[in-house]
Amino acid sequence: MCGRYASFREAQDLADAFDVEDVTDAAAEVAANYNVAPTDPIRIVLDRAPKAATADVEQSAPGTDAESSVRRQMHLARWGLVPAWAKDLSVGARMFNARSESLAESSAFRKPLVSKRCVVVADGYYEWHKTPVPGTKKVDRTPFYIHPTDGSPVAFAGLYAWWPDPSKAADDPDRWVLSATIVTADARDGLEQIHDREPAMLTPEGVATWLDPSVTDPGEALAVLAAPAPAVSWHEVGAQVGSVRNNSPELIQPV
């Protein structure tokens, strides 16, 4: 949790909704996906200066901080955060979520919490409600689609990282792999009826603070996650969403 979501709006619609100034070609061209799963390409929004400020290995990746005007950018990232110190990409397969309660202590997430926060943009997400089958050890899993009540896009609180691929030359533009994770928290406002966890969803005010590069205190960043979340609605959907092979608008329709 959160392990599946839907993102089907055009990049320009998302750019307008989140006041994005720069959209990379990759983010603009990614196809609609009604069944996004870990390791898939995802669109993220971040506030960063256009050029690196130092020659530091981690900060020399594209889109890192500089002593120039900060711009809001939309990038395409790999879902599942891969820390700069990771030996290979496989680490990200199990880091698609980051528990808010342990961000400040985690070796993978504490630095991104300070300087590499992003929002993962989407239209809604899926969650499965588990019900024990009486007299058996089986559990029924009922999928639900959860989305903002007002129809606006979702802003999941996220963290990102740049990973230098050791198999590529230092001057290879494809050497740096951008990856991201979705922050989760205890479910609230009725969502606990479905699952005990939820992705941390931000209001426009929350997005502004979460992305602000001048916010470097972990406590201040974490306080954003405790603020009231946007109102959401949900409905049961078909079991087809359980397979990543299925990807169509029908997945979000009520059963």
Overall description:
This protein is α+β, with helices and mostly antiparallel strands and 255 residues long. It has one domain: SOS response associated peptidase-like (hypothetical protein yedk fold). It is built from five helices and 13 strands. It has helices at residues 11-17, 25-29, 110-115, 204-211, 218-226, and strands at 5-7, 22-23, 33-36, 41-48, 71-79, 97-99, 117-122, 124-132, 139-148, 154-164, 176-186, 197-199, 232-236. The strands form two sheets. The chain has a five-stranded antiparallel beta sheet with strand order 3-1-8-9-13, with no helix packed on it. A five-stranded mixed barrel has the order 4-5-11-10-7. A hairpin with a 6-residue loop joins strand 8 and strand 9 (139-148). The longest helix has 9 residues, at 218-226. The model is unreliable at 52-60 (pLDDT under 50). Belongs to the SOS response-associated peptidase family.
Q: Might you state the CATH topology name?
A: hypothetical protein yedk fold
Unreliable sequence segments:
52-60
Describe the largest sheet. Answer: 5 strands, antiparallel
- Domain module tally: 1
InterPro entries: SRAP, SRAP-like
Family: Belongs to the SOS response-associated peptidase family.
Keywords: Covalent protein-DNA linkage, DNA damage, DNA-binding, Hydrolase, Lyase, Protease
Protein name: Abasic site processing protein
What's the short version?
The protein is α+β, with helices and mostly antiparallel strands. It is built from 5 helices and 13 strands. The chain has one domain: SOS response associated peptidase-like (hypothetical protein yedk fold, Alpha-Beta Complex).
